[in-house]
Amino acid sequence: MDKPRLFLSPPHLSGQELEFVHEAFASNYIAPLGPMVDAFEREFADVTGIPHCLAVSSGTAAMHLALRELGVGPGDEVFASTLTFIGSVSPAVFLGASPVFIDSSRETWNMDPALLAEALEDSARHGDLPKAVIPTDLYGQCADLDEILAVCAPYGIPVVTDCAESVGAIYKGRHAGVGAKAAVFSFNGNKIITTSGGGMLASADATLIEHARKLSQQARDAAPWYQHSEIGYNYRMSNILAAIGRGQLRVLHQRVEQKRAVFERYRQELSQVPGIEFMPEAPYGRSNRWLTAIIVEPELFGATPEDVRRALEAENIEARPIWKPLHLQPVFRSAKVIGGKVAEDLFRRGLCLPSGTALTEHDISRVCAIIRACRKKH
Ligand SMILES: *Cc1c(COP(=O)(O)O)cnc(C)c1O
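^ thats the input. predicted complex w/ pyridoxal-5'-phosphate below
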């Protein structure tokens, strides 16, 4: 391949990361924990407005700690979005609980609050309410958190938002995750900002974060020797990676604007093409447009999303189907699902386009030309 590959969402460093990494090296805190981790947590709290933050090794680890703190255990159920990544719910399974999957709404592609309300009424009738509700903020668009909180409040069910994809996104004027019992963020290499791998658990509940902090460090008691009264995990973030995170946080705002500009550019070039639609933006918020997601309607467009994906791949351009709904995953074949048709339809017709913040207008035009050319083949 002569042309460099266009990735779906590659890391985009600012240069400032290296200064913080040098500082970390100079301090010799080449360890989990250290001053960079403390500073990253403080700065992340400032950016999000969620007062208590715990930096950990991944978003999945953050979700595991959140659910453990809420007492999720064997025999419990959690209600989660079906249109999401498995890291959103695998921690519930680690803890012996079972996920029940809730379909998306057409307007937001996120957990449908009305469907959630029905599912909770039904569970209440049977006396088996879930231990937690876990809506995902899909592709950087916040779920309708206030509606979800209002539906859960009468039952006292805590909401943990999966904000792995929505760092920098806004919901009703506040940062993604504000108002939930706990929010989980990811800094994996493909996310809008990255530490190569990492995550954050954030909450307004100081006690929750304090205990999660203990669990993330092997649940060591306050004693001069190693003493343990419960079983924890080794989930802390490395001081070096927190240094990268501090550099990335300084360009978060810029990255959101770049992601949104990428989306707008695709929309300008493709919105007139019959059979192509874009992921809608809910009026209550401002998506970070982590990935530009489109719907390809084969009958109107003249090619399937998979035809488009293959045509792009032939030009060394990475595109990917929408998340395969979790209720369709082999591992969850016996799990309960409430609805499911909307997520199935989005999966069948959806496609995520290369959405890197370093894409040029020329790159995007090239991608769009290849997409448009797919029509003629049919
Ligand atoms: C990336 C992602 C996660 C998991 O984050 P990791 O840091 O990779 O463990 C969880 N949920 C969603 C929706 C994600 O996109």
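The pocket of pyridoxal-5'-phosphate is lined by residues 58-60, 84-85, 87-88, 136, 162, 164-165, 186, 188, 199 (CB under 6 Å).
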